[in-house]
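Consider this today:
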Amino acid sequence: MANVALDLTGSAADSTVSDGNGNYQFSALASGGSYSVTPSKAPLTPGSAGIDTVDVVATQRHFLNINLLPPGCRLMAADVNSDGAINTVDVIAIQRFYLSLTTGTANAGQYQFNPSGRSYPNLTTDQTGQNYDGFVFGDVASPFTN
């Protein structure tokens, strides 16, 4: 995911932003130091592009058992109120977000990352392939469409 802020804390503090391909790097860290990296991204504002009627309908179709969302980010993105179930509350919250309403949208438009952060105690070698899964609540159709 592009434009994700990654904050480094611990034996040193730094921050960077992921590039257009989601890549990021921290350089010149002291060997033997202990570090934590935490990703974050500012939430979308209600009515922002990317969450639209396609997402509303896809979430509703899942709730009605017409076309189930696959496990993973798309399914987690549909559960905008994070109660572990996808139902009319989620459908309405996504719809309200799409309509630019600022209340009753639960977590629609907010980003979530898994893991929420990583710790590197006594770091002595480069760490590559340190990927995070990320999604925005309410965006169930794109960019996660097959």
